[in-house]
Amino acid sequence: MIKQNKFNEYFKTVSEAFGFDILTDTRKRKYTDARFVLYYLCRENNMRLEDIQEFLKDKGYSVSCTNIVHGHRNISAIIDSGRDEELQELVNSAL
User: Fold this and answer.
1) Which 8-state DSSP code applies to residue 63?
2) Distance of CA 30 to CAs 6, 14, 22, 36, Å?
3) Fold assignment, 2-94
4) What is the mean pLDDT of the chain?
């Protein structure tokens, strides 16, 4: 229950920050980046991959564990490189 509440908080924060439905079923970059940020926030909060999958499934979106791991690594690399200050601010404010 606590993790689901935290997931919902992250989901709301990311959706509002990006300004669109991040679970739109598309591979367009802006949508995948937004979902990757959500995965990153959840994993940094020590959520299990299976929990993230379940919470997304409850919202009508299916995702593989591999995709969650890939998204987390992708956002980690961007943050570590310092390439996107706006993204860093979003993550810092959410965590």
Assistant:
1) -
2) 23, 12, 9, 10
3) Chromosomal Replication Initiator Protein Dnaa; Chain: A; (1.10.1750)
4) 93
